[in-house]
Amino acid sequence: MASEMSLLLIASLLRRGRQIDQLSTGLTLLGLAGGLLPMLIGRGNLLMALPCVLLILLGLVQKYWAIRTALDAELFAALAADPAQRGVRIAELDSALLELHLQPATHASRPWDARIRGAWRLLRLQALWLAAQLFLALTMILVVPWFSFAG
Fold first, then answer.
1. What is the DSSP letter of 45?
2. Are 90 and 115 in contact (CB under 8 A)?
3. Helix or strand or coil: residue 133?
4. 28-45, pLDDT tens digit by residue?
5. CA torsion 99→104→109→110, rounded to 10°?
6. Nearest-10 crossing angle of helices 46-81, 17-31
7. Are the C-beta atoms of residues 76 and 7 closer than 8 Å to each other?
8. Within its chain, how far is the Cα of 115 from the centroid?
9. 83 or 118, which is more confident?
């Protein structure tokens, strides 16, 4: 069983997903303002709107992983808060996750290292979607000026 400190540490690290989410939200809003707002006022073009829509969609997927990461951070922190009742609380958590169809039956009663690896996977996926967003935004910044030269 994981120690109280390791549970607090993983909860703290998972909370860093909030900063990832904030950066992604900024990029998503940039996509809204840069591509879709001009379309609404009749001054945009479809070629510019498509990458912005993709930027927004990447941001929405990242937001999904951010919600999952934040939930795990709260659950790990709650489990660390009461070491004496941890075994009972884990059983209750697994039962609640199964009841709400948030976890398949095969994942119930997983060992701690698998739970921690799963939580890390969520944070990595969140960061990966942010990286895709950043890549697209930087590509747009580098490519858009060339459109003014081409036409």
1. -
2. no
3. helix
4. 998 888 777 777 777 767
5. -150
6. 160
7. yes
8. 17
9. 118
State both tokens at 106. 């095969």
- Tokens 């540490």 sit at which residue? 9
Cα distances (Å, whole numbers) of residue 1 to 24, 79, 110, 116, 133 = 35, 11, 11, 11, 37
Q: How far apart are the first and last CA of the chain?
A: 64
**Tokens 């996926």 found at:** 125
- 103: DSSP letter: S
**Cα angle 96, 104, 61; round to 5:** 95
**Integer CA distances (angstroms), 83 to 15, 72, 93, in order:** 21, 17, 15
Task: Quote the pTM value.
Answer: 0.84
Contact present, 136 and 58 (Cβ < 8 Å) = yes
Which run of H or E residues covers position 101? none
pLDDT-based confidence at residue 144 (cuts at 50, 70, 90): confident
Report the C-alpha gap between 84 and 6 in whole angstroms.
15
CB 54 within 8 A of CB 125: no
Distance CA 110, CA 88 (A): 14
